[in-house]
Amino acid sequence: MYYHGTDNGSAEIIVKTQQMCPSIGEHQWLGDGCYFYCDKEYAFRWILIKYTENFKNKFTEDYSRIFDKYAIICAEININSNRLFSMDNIQHSMLFNKAKEELITNTVKKSIKYKKHKVIDGIVFNFLFNKMNYKESYDAVKAVFPISHICNDSRLEFLPEPQICVKNLSIISNIQKYSEKVVPEEYITFIIDYNSLKNKLKKKKHSEKYTKKNPSVKYKI
Amino acid sequence: MNIDTELNKITDYISNLSGKELDKILFDCGIESIRPSIDSDYVVCLKKIKYLSEKDASSGYRKALWVHNNIKEEYFYTKIMKQEVA
After folding, report:
1. Is ipTM strictly over 0.90?
2. Contact map slice: B 24-83 vs A, CB within 8 A
3. Which terminus of chain A has a lower count of CB atoms within 10 Å, N or C?
4. C-alpha distances in angstroms, B25 versus A55, A90, B69?
5. CA–CA separation, A40 vs A189, rounded Å?
6. What is the pLDDT of residues A78-97, one digit of tens each?
7. Residues on chain A touching B9 (C-beta within 8 angstroms)
8. Is A105 helix (H, G, I), strand (E, B) or coil?
9. Residue A14: closest CA among chain B residues belongs to which residue?
10. Which residue of A has its CA nearest to B2?
11. Which residues in chain A touch residue B7, judged by CB atoms under 8 angstroms apart?
């Protein structure tokens, strides 16, 4: 199962109609499509962030109030591994990065309106799927986003956030409402642990950046 | 997948585009925040969507419909309305 956070109104309609609506716009990290988390905890984190953003000053740690406004839905995604464009796949990753480089170079050289625009990842995926017809060969894109990645003495100091962006909506099925009235303790524990580790990684990253500029200064974390 | 073959296709495709054609493609791929042409019925449905959101205040879509981040709700309502009409 894969998980998606949304407001209650949308969740009811989605479950009733069994239809997802694609997210569209340049800020979609993997291009246009329906986004799912592989882990339900991230879907919960997403609705927690939205609740905090949209209901400022009303946010408390009473998670049941969050479910008055937002919901987590889950769905089956019937994906054949041969039809998954995965950024874990070295060939896919290299192709994506080279295509991005090509688009950026040509945009700077030839574009009339967008010379100074950033050609971000979502645009590259849209180009591959909509213009180079990758949607004929692939139904979804999968990537793991490294949160608070530090590249120093360890390559493992980051929080992995795997997401899948479905391009072919027909592979989504059995959409159900997943969020529960009573929040399981694991969500609360996850959020606390996640935020704690993310803050530690951020501090360490900041400290190491500063130390590189000022090698004589040492910080305690 | 042969990366070189795929990359050559991409390079050939892009290199044959004029600046104007490249701009059209970048626009279609979302380089600007708002792309009004996502659906042929998009403009027609906008007024209906606005009406629906004003009618159904609890949906939370009141003000944001005309904003980029809610294009998905607009597209969604377009599908729902087509179903209702059908």
Report:
1. no
2. 25-26, 28-33, 35, 38, 56, 58-61, 68-69, 71-73, 75-76, 79-80, 83
3. C
4. 38, 27, 21
5. 13
6. 999 999 999 999 999 999 99
7. 132
8. helix
9. B76
10. A91
11. 95, 98-99, 102
